[in-house]
Structure formats: C-alpha cells, structure tokens
Amino acid sequence: MALGEKLRNAVESLRKATVFDKGAIKEASKELQRALISSDVEVKLVLDLTTHIEEEAMSEKLPKGLTRREHVLKVTYDNLVELLGGTAKKAPEKPKKILLVGLFGAGKTTTVAKLAKYYIKRGMKVGVIAADTYRPAATEQLEQLCGKAKIPLFGDKKEKNASKLVEKALKKMKGFDLLITDSAGRSGFDSGLVKEIKGINKEFKPDEKWLVLGADVGQLAKKQAKAFHEAIGVNGVIITRIDGSAKGGGALAACAVSEAPVYFLGTGEKLDDLQEFDAQRYLSRIMGYGDLQALLEKAKEVQEEGDLSPEELMKGEFNLDTFYKQLKATKKMGSLSKVSEMLGLKMQVPKEMLDMTEEKLDGFKIIMDSMTIQEKQQPNVLNRNRILRIAKGCGKKEADVRELIKSFKQMAGMFKKFKNIDGKALQKKDGGIDMQKLAGMFGKKKKKKFRIR
Ligand SMILES: Nc1nc2c(ncn2[C@@H]2O[C@H](COP(=O)(O)OP(=O)(O)O)[C@@H](O)[C@H]2O)c(=O)[nH]1
Ligand SMILES: [Mg+2]
C-alpha cells in the first residue's frame, strides 16, 4: 500500500469520529504510527510526531472558529506536513547548470530528460550532457529519452573519463540558458564514485548539485544525503518512483531531518511524470482531502471575520443557529409534525421538514460546524464557492448543504410570520422559540392568521 492510502486510512477514522476524547485520539494516533512506520519513517520521528499531535489535539482552548474535529484534523495535517518537509524551498526558476548525482538505478538519467523538458516548457534553452562514462549503454539511454523530446545532447561514447567529457561538452554546448549533466552511479557509495563526481563537479562548476534518490530507499535517504553532501555539497534532492514505492514517506521524512530540500518528485517513467514538491500540496492530494484545503480556507475566513462585531452579526436575528436550535427544540417536544399540528401550522410547514429525522438534524449540525460564524448568522453570504468549501469541509455533498439552506429559507419565511405576531416575545434566551407561548397565541388567533388561501 502506498503512503497516501495508508495515511488516508489512518486519518479517515478521525474524520468519521463523533467523539474526540483522549481515547479516540490515542487510537487514531496509533493508526498513524503504524502507517508511518510501515512507510519506513524513522521510529523516533514517528513517536515525536504522534506525541505532538496528541498534546495539541487535546489542548483546552480551541482556535477561534474551529470545532474540536476540525482542530484535531488540522493539527494532524500540520504535523504531517512538517514531518515531510514543511514549506521547503522551491526549486530555482532559472538555474544555469544542474548536476545530478546518485547511486545506480536511482533515476538520474530519466530525471535529466524530465528536468530538461520541465525547464524547456518554462521558456529556457536547455542542453544535456551525458557524462555517465561508466556504463556503456548510458549515453544511448539518454539519447533515446532526449530524442523523443528533441532535447539537444552532448555525448561521446569513446570518452571514458567523465571530467574530460564534460570539458569537451562545455566547449561545444554554447548559448544555452541551462545545461544539465547526467553522471554515473555505483551500486554503493564508494571512493571511485566520489572521485568521479568530484572531477565532474570541478570541471562543470554547477550552481545546482542535486541528489537523485529512489523512494524505495526509505529512511536510508538520510545516510545517502549525508554522504553525497560531504562529497560535493548537495543542495537539492529529487525523489523518484514515488508512484510505486511504499517507502516514500520514509525518504521524505529523512530528507526533511537532513534539511535537504526536496525539489521534485518522479511520479512515473514518462518525461512528464515530474512534479514540483510541496509537502502541503502533496499531503492534501495523496490523502484525498479537498477538505483539508477547505479547512484551511475556513480558518482564514474566520480570521478575516474577526473584525466584524457580534452585534453586526446578530442583526440577522433569524439565522442558521436559531434555525437549528428551533428544530432541535421542536424535536424534543415530539415530532415536528405533531407540534405544528398543535399550533395549527401543519399546512404551512413543508413536508420534508415535518418528516425531519434526528439523523438529518445531526447531519445539519455537522454541516453547520463547517461554516464560519458569519455564514451561520448571515446565510445570504453563502455563494457557490462557500457552499463547495463547506461540503468538502464536512465530507458531505453540495446537495446536502443546499438542502440545509433551503430548509432554512422555508423556516425563515415562517418565522417572518411569527415575528409579525410578536417574534421577539417568543424568542427564548437560547435562541429557540418559546413553544408554549406560541401555542397560546395560536390558540386565539390561528384560524385568522394562518388560513390557507
Ligand atoms: N515508476 C517510475 N519509474 C522511474 C521513475 N524514474 C525512473 N524510473 C525508472 O527507473 C529505472 C532506472 O532509472 P535510470 O534513470 O536509468 O536510473 P539511473 O541509474 O540513476 O540513471 C528506469 O527503468 C526508469 O524508467 C519514476 O519516477 N517512476
Ligand atoms: Mg543513468
């Protein structure tokens, strides 16, 4: 199972949970530990991470505007982002010379061609140097990859000395914005390799020295990053085969602790299978969570709302909060159907609302938890963008959110009529309607006021 799926499963139980007590969080944290350890993330890092999450998740005070559920999810997400590299440095936009190094089979040669295409797409004139003189077929492999994409290449199959080859290449390859050099690997890090890449480094003088790692190295990435860094001063990392490896998490976390910025991920064998890496985007994508993004957006909107005064917000009077409280209160008294009959209101209340189940009400609550205060107080701000964000945030469908809004509007229409009688007098402290009072009033007036025309 790939990292994404494991993390998704682990967090899924958190997403679905309705209680967020210590036990539930401990349980989820254990699942997260299993997912990360089986992704080959170093055990110490995993334990640190889950301790953090547990502590923060149970914090006494919730951040403004977030429910406990949202808070726990956000804490988990933030900590995972940190583990996998945080908001690390972005790959340079206009590098001049890139040298790729790494062991056999890491994905260097493929990545040289991928990178060339990537920068060509960004308007640069890119050339490639085939400096793997160790493996006879290496130049041919690069020729094939570059041929397809018409990428200019310098190779010399007869030259056995890598630094001499680079020297020749630099004389030939003039007028390029960017040159990318491929280099040979070994099955393990050894002195022959060090000598060779040091030679290339001296001749080529690259500003960018990037280590290519296959995701399957897992936590060993740390050791490799250290060794290559000591040899030539690596300043970037590319992790390939993230698509097929179960150990991608371990490799990413290891690079994060080594403070080696991961610039790109290789996600397949084709030249376009190269992605800029950003821990935040990566996580929200692999975990399948549009809703994490939605959550962050909500947190932002809540912050912006911080400037609105509560009085201003309360102007709406009948809002989603009061709507929910009323429904809840009415439910307590028995079915809405019965209550409205008692009030002589039955014909006025839409059928869907009469049949409102406890379950539906709970669903409404979950949707409302994903709304900001302003959205609940002034539902007219709910445009399509917000509706989509809310739906993602609570894992419901857009139609569910719209249903809540529709029911609310229907009730609001009725509420206007209540108000015409004496709405204020009926409002209880908790925002609900004083049903007894209302019933009393309707006892006298119901026939006249609410006759069906
Ligand atoms: N699935 C997948 N395969 C890759 C990726 N990058 C490289 N490969 C494959 O890995 C193998 C080794 O790649 P190569 O570029 O020759 O590695 P090198 O020895 O470091 O030059 C080749 O079969 C590539 O097609 C990737 O991101 N995903
Ligand atoms: Mg190669």
Encode the helix/strand succession as letters: HHHHEHEHEHEHEHEHEEHHHHHHHHHHH
Tell the overall outline.
elongated
Q: What characterizes the major β-sheet?
A: 8 strands, mixed
How does the helix and strand content classify structurally? alpha/beta
The domain tally reads 3
Q: Ranges with pLDDT <50 over ≥5 residues? A: 441-453
Q: Rounded to an integer, what's the Rg over CA atoms?
A: 31 Å
Find the count of extended strands (DSSP E, 2+ residues).
8
Count of helices?
21
* CATH superfamily (homologous) name of the largest domain: P-loop containing nucleotide triphosphate hydrolases
Bound molecules: guanosine-5'-diphosphate, magnesium ion
For the termini, the CA-CA separation is 64 Å
CATH architecture of the largest domain: 3-Layer(aba) Sandwich
Q: What is the arithmetic mean of pLDDT?
A: 82
Strand order of the largest sheet: 3-2-4-1-5-6-7-8
Helix content: 55-70%
By CATH reckoning, the class of the largest domain would read: Alpha Beta
CATH topology of the largest domain: the name is Rossmann fold
- Beta-strand percentage range: 5-15%
Describe the structure.
This protein is α/β, with parallel strands linked by helices and 453 residues long. It has 3 domains: 3-83, Four Helix Bundle (Hemerythrin (Met), subunit A); 97-286, Rossmann fold (3-Layer(aba) Sandwich); 294-449, Orthogonal Bundle (434 Repressor (Amino-terminal Domain)), CATH 1.10.260.30. Helices cover 57% and strands 9% of the residues. The chain is built from 21 helices and 8 strands. It has helices at 3-16, 22-38, 43-57, 68-83, 108-121, 138-148, 162-172, 191-204, 221-232, 248-257, 279-286, 290-305, 310-314, 320-332, 336-342, 351-354, 358-369, 373-377, 384-394, 398-426, 435-449; strands at residues 97-101, 126-131, 153-154, 178-183, 208-214, 236-240, 262-266, 274-276. Strands 3-2-4-1-5-6-7-8 form an 8-stranded mixed sheet, with helices on both faces. Helix 6 links the parallel strand 2 (126-131) and strand 3. Helix 3 (43-57) packs antiparallel against helix 4 (68-83), helix 17 (358-369) crosses helix 19 (384-394) and helix 19 (384-394) crosses helix 20 (398-426). The N and C termini lie far apart (64 Å). Guanosine-5'-diphosphate binds at residues 102, 104-110, 185, 212, 240-241, 243-244, 266-269, 273.
